[in-house]
Amino acid sequence: MRRVVRGFWGPREESPEVLARRWQVTLRRIAELLPAAGAEAGAPRAEDAWGWQHVRASGPATELRADEASLLAALRAQRETDAWSGGHGYGLRLVTTGAQGWRIEVSGLAGGTPEFLLQSMVIGVTAPDGADIPDAALLTAIAEEWEPDFGDVSDDDVLDVLEDEGGFGVGEPLVGWVGYLSAARAALVPDDVAAARKELRGGGVLLDIAAPDDTDGVLRACLRLRDAGALQPLPRPMSRAVL
Q1: Which residues contact 49 (CB under 8 A, 6 or more apart)?
Q2: Is residue 73 helix, strand or coil?
């Protein structure tokens, strides 16, 4: 089974040093929440010993440790090879494959100030059937470490329903079976949205929308939140990180 845990926000200029710290803490929290995903020969590995592979657009993947110094070096190297990084953001894609069918992909684009391209952090989790995935905790990690505007936990089935039946386009704010809304969006959530709410650091809210297989429940919640203004897109051209 596979799901994605995502956070999106608008332009927010940040240095490679700041981004490296955010990346390091995010990877540490993933290791803490999904210890089986970093297992090797049946034994969990320490968080700083996970076998992360740095995947680039061209060339072979290379090993990358999850410490701040290694991540900073990777971000600086990307700045030197991609002339547009300073404006659009610094992107990294890391992959690790553990025992028993686990695969974690972490992709981020952050630190830039584009007017039309959202910044993002995405965790893709492939796990054995029946594995217990801490969806809310993973989305909380993204929300607390990256301060996004909105985020979700979803899969292809949910996203297909939201696109086909709800008319949600790529990059538009939405929530999955778990959702995150920044403080300004959370203030627009109507009382009749039947979802457990948990306020997070920074004033945003985590919403427990539905069970993972309840695509109709997710669709109803998204439509209601959109009608209430809580899922309105950031104005284009974008001038701020959150609504």
Answers
A1: 38
A2: helix
Q: Which residues of 129-153 are buried (b: 16+ CB within 10 A; e: fewer)?
A: eeeebebbbbbbbbbbbbbbbbbbb
Pairing mode of beta strands 39-40, 178-181? unpaired
Would you give per-residue pLDDT tens digits along the chain (243 residues)?
899 999 999 999 999 999 999 999 999 999 999 988 876 645 455 555 677 999 987 778 889 999 999 999 999 988 777 655 557 899 999 998 776 789 999 999 999 999 999 999 999 999 998 899 999 999 999 999 999 999 999 999 999 999 999 999 988 999 999 999 999 999 999 988 878 899 998 899 999 999 999 999 999 999 999 999 999 999 999 999 999
3-state DSSP assignment of residue 225: helix
